[in-house]
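Protocol step 4 of 6: structure prediction from sequence.
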Amino acid sequence: MATRESVTVGEHTIGFLRAGDGPPLVMLHGIGGNATQFIHQMDGLADSATVIAWDAPGYGESSDPGDEWLMPDYAAILAGFLDALGLDRVALLGQSWGGSLAQTFVGLYPERVSRLILSDASMGGRSQPEETRLATLKGRLDALESMTPAELAVARAPAVLGPNPSAEVMREAETMMAAIRPSGYRRAAIALAEIDTRPFHAGITVPTLVIGGEHDKITPPSGAATLASAIRGARHVTIPGIGHLSGQEDPETYNAAVIEFLRDSTLA
């Protein structure tokens, strides 16, 4: 059973969920998520790790980010969050937007990460053609102006799931996405549009797993393969039949892959 907790990091409050007992695994949610995105990992990984899922600034029970924050600012707060929990070094799992943050964090604070899991993750907006980058950002910001979070969730959920999601998974995705705070989502969208994680890849020396869904339309398997090939020794796992929210849509397969990676003693 996960517990809901919070800590103070400078002037900010960071809410989080915690479950399990073992080496720390810190999980960073996607742009449409919050800590509850990982409820199936809280249940499925708690026998293997102390699982900690934060609400990023601007999400869930965390206070808002600064008006000009970019991804390195989120990374700095994440470092302070680990300090507040007394965690020197952790396994770090980033989902989608959280995957771009995880790459930024390990690039800026390499001594804080023992293993890295990039889940349905991209290399950031600046790694894309400029026209694509600007169109994606405009689409997100326009949606915030024209729809309520609940309307945005209904419109967006089908795009982040595979071709045959269960009604339960669809409801879960819609409920999660309807909980976004527009100000937090807006800042996160801009931060994602402004980051290019490729300069960090050569310096990533920790064991890395890149994982995602076969039918992910947001960060497709071809992009995941490119990301894995850019990080020395990275493993690439594709989960069949599902979309962008791989840890929610097929938690059994997803959790098994994460546990195998965390427990692999052959990794340096």
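Step 5 (inspection) to follow. The radius of gyration is 17 Å.
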